[in-house]
Automatic annotation (TrEMBL):
Main location: cytoplasm
Signal peptide (residue range): none
InterPro entries per the UniProt record, alphabetical: 6-PGluconate_DH-like_C_sf (IPR008927), NAD(P)-bd_dom_sf (IPR036291), P5C_Rdtase_cat_N (IPR028939), P5CR_dimer (IPR029036), Pyrroline-COOH_reductase (IPR000304)
Species this protein is from: Bacillus licheniformis (strain ATCC 14580 / DSM 13 / JCM 2505 / CCUG 7422 / NBRC 12200 / NCIMB 9375 / NCTC 10341 / NRRL NRS-1264 / Gibson 46)
Identification of the protein by name: Pyrroline-5-carboxylate reductase
Function per UniProt: Catalyzes the reduction of 1-pyrroline-5-carboxylate (PCA) to L-proline.
GO molecular function, one term: pyrroline-5-carboxylate reductase activity
Gene: proI
Pathway in which this enzyme or protein is active: Amino-acid biosynthesis; L-proline biosynthesis; L-proline from L-glutamate 5-semialdehyde: step 1/1
Pfam families in alphabetical order: F420_oxidored, P5CR_dimer
Stretches assigned to the Pyrroline-5-carboxylate reductase catalytic N-terminal domain: 3-99
Length: 273
């Protein structure tokens, strides 16, 4: 039985552990998790999911066929370097560290290993992440499938070139925050119009869920928008206000700025090696 070790025990690590256990993809006893010093957190994960919480990072690295790097990016250099004595050339490293490129991870590790660099999002907590990942040349077909199967337990999976991950980070990684910001504005407008908070919240949730399911049919969003928009009607009036305030260009600028920041973080980590 293959074994997987999580270096870091935060919310993303928990989401992936939950997905693996809930889906039956792995037995809990084949899953190890460690962190820097929070033994209470390790105990919590062990009691909740039946996995092996281990304070000794060296033991987790030595026992695992695959290691998931899920520490905070600021701790990556020291955390990965500490694993060096225990890493094996055939061992797969899966990184969910935002902004840290594959060649930097290999530099920290001190040797060329098969590395998968992934960008899941916070919806992994409910197994609805839109995850994209890129792989180094040393990743085998079997390991590629292993990574895809892992992320499939927390949502959808797309394989991309590493050069696309800045765009992926902006669209799918930061994207939920942009959607939530739009929802905040809908809630504020509903309050100004006198709708009770509870009523408005449920209407917005149901509206967003329905719109998302309509998008899943594959129909063009511009076509569906036009079908709702009657000449001289309420939707047209609202859309005209969005156009007057350059809504589309604002969203484009928002996403591009997020992508630019992702590139800056990537270059910052790369510059340190």
């Amino acid at each position: 039985m293959k074994r997987i070790g999580f270096i870091g025990a935060g919310s993303m690590a928990e989401a992936m552990i939950k997905g693996l256990v809930k889906s039956g993809a792995m037995e809990p006893e084949a899953i190890f998790v460690t962190n820097q010093s929070n033994t209470a957190r390790l105990r919590e994960l062990s009691e909740t999911y039946g996995v092996c919480g281990e304070a000794d990072t060296a033991k987790v690295a030595a026992r695992s066929d695959t290691l998931v790097l899920a520490m905070k990016p600021k701790d990556a250099a020291g955390g990965i370097a500490a694993l060096r004595p225990y890493l094996r050339k055939e061992q797969l490293l899966i990184s969910v560290l935002a902004g840290i490129p594959i060649h930097t991870i290999q530099h920290y590790a001190g040797l060329e290993l098969p590395v998968v660099r992934a960008m899941p999002n916070t919806s992994a907590a409910i197994q609805k992440s839109a995850t994209a990942f890129a792989a180094s040349p040393l990743v085998t077909k079997e390991q590629m499938q292993e990574a895809a199967d892992l992320f499939a337990t927390v949502g959808s999976v797309t394989i991309v070139e590493e050069s696309a991950l800045d765009a992926v980070t902006a669209v799918a990684g930061s994207g939920p925050a942009f959607v939530y910001r739009f929802v905040e504005a809908l809630q504020a407008s509903a309050a100004e119009l006198g709708l009770p908070e509870k009523t408005a919240k449920q209407l917005i949730i149901d509206m967003m869920a329905g719109a998302a399911q309509m998008l899943e049919t594959g129909r063009d969003p511009s076509v569906m928008r036009k079908e709702i928009t009657s000449a001289g009607g309420t939707t047209e009036a609202g859309l005209r206000m969005l156009d007057d305030h350059q809504f589309e260009q604002t969203v484009i600028s928002c996403v591009k700025e997020a992508a630019n920041r992702s590139a800056e973080l990537r270059d910052m980590f790369a510059a340190k090696i």
